[in-house]
Structure to design on (186 residues):
């Protein structure tokens, strides 16, 4: 796994043209186009966005964590958006139907689930371009944007504005992440 991958931006170029996550659209796991995430995130205080995979060594721990966070904090304004991704060692090879069954039935996930996307590179989904550019992954000094390193990279985003993005790496401490969630929901 190459942890030093990044995209070099041209002078004055931004990886994402959007000013807020809430402006960006996506396709949900059933194939329904959502024009703007803001339409489905009204009233949410905090958004946790995760790139997920069903065949990864980190799968069980992270799906258990997402369920725990959702169950514990959804009434306080947390929403979780899970985006399947097959970019890392092809660890999410399934189609929509199998991905949905895995997340909903096997893992008991009730949070929002979306269609499979790329999170890095030229074909990265606009949501992940925005998240990478507006988080610690962006280095203003050399105008580079770091790649998400593996499955289960996590981003916390302010639900009211769709900004204030914080990146939490795949192997980051989940207790620290829960403490951040709890603090930002106060």
């Amino acid at each position: 796994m190459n942890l030093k991958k990044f995209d070099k931006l041209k002078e004055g170029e931004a990886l994402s043209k959007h000013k807020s996550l809430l402006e960006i659209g996506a396709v949900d796991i059933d194939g329904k186009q959502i024009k703007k995430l803001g339409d489905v995130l009204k009233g949410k205080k905090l958004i946790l966005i995760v790139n997920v995979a069903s065949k990864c060594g980190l799968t069980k721990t992270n799906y258990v964590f997402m369920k725990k966070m959702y169950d514990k904090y959804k009434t306080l304004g947390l929403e979780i958006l899970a985006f399947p991704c097959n970019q890392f060692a092809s660890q999410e090879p399934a189609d929509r139907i199998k991905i949905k069954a895995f997340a909903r039935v096997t893992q008991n996930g009730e949070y929002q689930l979306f269609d499979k996307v790329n999170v890095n590179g030229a074909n990265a989904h606009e949501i992940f371009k925005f998240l990478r550019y507006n988080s610690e992954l962006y280095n203003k000094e050399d105008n580079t944007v770091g790649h998400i390193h593996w499955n289960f990279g996590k981003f916390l985003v302010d639900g009211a504005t769709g900004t204030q993005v914080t990146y939490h790496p795949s192997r980051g401490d989940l207790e620290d992440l829960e403490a951040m969630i709890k603090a930002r929901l106060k």
In short: The chain has one domain: 27-184. The domain at 27-184 is CATH 3.40.30.10 (Glutaredoxin).
